[in-house]
Amino acid sequence: xxxxxxxxxxxxxxxxxxxxxxxxxxxxxxxxxxxxxxxxxxxxxxxxxxxxxxxxxxxxxxxxxxxxxxxxxxxxxxxxxxxxxxxxxxxxxxxxxxxxxxxxxxxxxxxxxxxxx
Length: 117
Hints:
Layout lengths: L1 H22 L6 H34 L3 H40 L11
Helix pairs in contact: 1-3, 2-3
């Protein structure tokens, strides 16, 4: 089952990679690539922190036997987890973009206006 999911995730990452390359040129340097990657990692961390807070709130709802609060928090956790998955997808896509940008620069075909396919 995980293999199927990973194949689907790989397809989603590939689509995000191509979408990002339509909007932005190749990274001019590894430094630039790392900066963009780091920003995406920070955004993923923010979503993970929200998810951890939701989990903590669930513990309180369970202790208080508050089913409505638990349901509401679980709904919120679902949306937060989807945002986390989207951010993780962007991290993976930017990691691919670092590799392809580096390959382009090493091929001596790089110009400041270079895009990626």
